[in-house]
Amino acid sequence: MDEVRQRAPGDVYAHEYPGLVRLAYVTTGSLAAAEDVVQDVFADWFRLEGIRREQVREPAAYLRRAVLSRCTSWVRRRILERRHAAAPALAPPASDAPAQADIAAVRAALRQLTPRQRAAVFLRYYLDLPEAQVAAALACRPGTVKSLLHRSLTKMKEVLGD
Amino acid sequence: MTDLEQRLRAAIRAIADEPDVALPPRPAVTVRLPWLRRYAVPAVAALAVVVAIFAITLPQPGGTPHRPAAGSDEVFLPDEIAGLSLLTATVSDAPLGQPAMAVLHQGNLGTTWGSSQVVVIAADGRTYRRLDLAEQRGALAADGEWVHAQTRLAPDGRLVAIGDPHGGATDIAVLDLVTGRRHDYPLARPSAYRLLGWSPDGRTLALLAVPGATRDIYETEPGGLADLVVLDLATGALATVSQVPSAVGEHYCFTGDGRAVVAGVRDDEEPGFTLYPIDGSAKRTVPVPAAWRLAGCAPDGSLLVTQPDTADARLRLVSATDGAVLRETRLPQPVDEALAWRSASTPILYAPSWLAEGATGRVLAAPFDGQVTTLSTADEGWFSRVTVLELAAALAGDAAPTGAGPERGPWPVWARVVTATLVVLAGAVLVLRRRRRTATSEVTA
Predict the structure, then answer these.
(1) Which A residues in the span 4-33 are in contact with B, Cβ-Cβ below 8 Å?
(2) What are phi and psi of B301, to 5 degrees?
(3) CATH 3.20.20.70 assigned to B70-415
(4) I need a labelling partner for B81 at 20 to 30 A (CA). Which of A83, A90, B4, B62 fits?
(5) Cα of B14 to nearest chain A Cα, Å
(6) Smallest Cβ distance to B16: which of A25, A35, A92?
(7) Mind giving me the DSSP string for B372-419?
(8) Whether residues A76 and A111 fall in one domain
(9) Which structural domain, as residue segments, surrounds residue A64?
(10) Are residues A122 and A149 in the same domain?
(11) Could you give the dihedral angle defined by the CA atoms of residues B65, B69, B70 and B74, in that order, rounded to the nearest 10 degrees?
């Protein structure tokens, strides 16, 4: 993280952007929304003055937290807009790869999770972050992260049929 | 890690990696100014507006408490009378809080925009106020210039009588300069009138009045025969003393004992000046040679006369009984009427600048048996020329020159409004310039 902190803003952008988009994609279920959210977060990041930006000790964690905050807001707006519509899509790509039962099942399971639960799952199982850092990204206590992950896994196990 | 978790992890990775995330150009953002700089100008502008509004809506002072000049009974006359200023507060807005030492009509161009003013100088010699009531009661003269109402300052400097230059006037305004309180004394019938002066004790005001109700004509000077009227300030009663000849520019004064009014007008049938006792008893004439003009009434009852048409400015004290010459002296420049007396033989006179070409207006103490001293000067400038000067007769004799002041009091409302508007406009311009500069300084990746 220290290495990232020492990088120029442009380097941070190039390094963190893809991962943050994927985080936002899993959380929101929309690639377009994910890209918008991450762009907005980086726009704010670049607007930070030099001193204030340097005061951010962990840019990656800072940016993740900002992305998740915006994702949560986006999903809430989306829910209000489509109160009776289906949950965020997480649609498979058009050219579907060879069917994988687990992927389909997890995709279906993710639809049933809250954005916060999806974010926790992504942070834990995609980025392999320890619970403490997941808690930092979600702005909650580690105990809450455990609870979120536990409920998420329970739900996914049900879907996976185990 | 269980098999289930591994399957979950693999599936989540697959799902998260599905999108083909391309790195777009770094977002273009507008560089924001530091917080302080961003908000400093609007904050200052807002503060200026608040301050301006506060200043505008600030209640006008109701008059400062009476303040003895220099912390004692001393009274002062400015050694140099300041030129007029548009920022001088009015007596209505900020009464003197102390007696006045002088009332002067100042400036050259007669307008209602302040190019000529009636100004009061307080007994501390440094506090100046515009006598707005006298300006408001003025009238448009035949030459198109605004002429202020006539003023007469009481001997104690506390009251000033303010006339009405219109014909058909119905009242005499008397203003308390200490408190700003006004009292109107109604005339018995609409008249054109001219204020003559106060009795030495300040209880009686003399005027000439010619009845007539024509209102819209500028008539400061009753002509021909006029009623010599005295107003008792205590009761408001007006009494007609006599019919007297009236002429523009001639001087009238109360005798030293206050029992009679001396008319400086020469009746064709009389070889001198006429004394009119205010109790209505018979008038009498003081023989004075024709070349001499009445310039004042001394405290001891003698009359001050001068020769205005001669270059050497002679001055005489003559007996009010038989016109005998008591004293005589010469002055460095021609003088107008006496403003006050230091003693029975030391008049204080105003030598206007226009009586001696290119000269400075001077207030002189002119003892008949000593050196003439200049107490005060008034520049012959466009905005400093003093056309009329009155002194508080009971105070001026003891006045000492002072270089302090001028203190002009709180700014008039219009000045505060103009200043506030300029401040707001300047603030708005600054904000707009800031924003324009900010909008052009964009940073891209």
Answers:
(1) 10, 13-14, 17-18, 21-23, 25-26, 31
(2) 100, -15
(3) no
(4) B62
(5) 7
(6) A25
(7) -EEEEEE--STTT-EEEEEE-HHHHTT-EEE----B--SPPHHHHHHH
(8) no
(9) 1-88
(10) yes
(11) -140
pTM over cut 0.95 = no
Residue B113 CB burial class (10 angstroms; 0-12, 13-18, ≥19): exposed
Q: What is the C-alpha separation between B84 and B88, in angstroms, rounded?
A: 8
Give the count of domains, chain A.
Answer: 2
**Residue reference for tokens 């269980």:** B2
Same domain, A137 and A156: yes
Number of CB pairs < 8 Å for A and B? 85
Please check whether residues A108 and A149 belong to one and the same domain: yes
User: Would you give the DSSP letter of residue B150?
Assistant: P
Q: What ipTM describes this predicted complex?
A: 0.75
Domain boundaries along the sequence of chain B = 70-415
pLDDT digits (tens, 9 = 90+) for B175-225: 999 999 999 999 999 998 999 999 999 999 999 998 886 776 665 566 678
pLDDT value for A50:
65
Residue B197, phi-psi category: left (phi > 0), alpha (psi -120 to 50), beta (remainder) = left
The residues near B335 (Cβ < 8 Å, ≥ 6 apart) are B295, B306, B313, B315, B349, B350, B351, B355, B364, B366
Considering only CA atoms, give the Rg of chain B. Answer: 34
Q: Tell whether the torsion through CA atoms of B404, B408, B410 and B416 is positive or negative.
A: negative
Phi–psi pair at A33, nearest 5 degrees: -65, -40
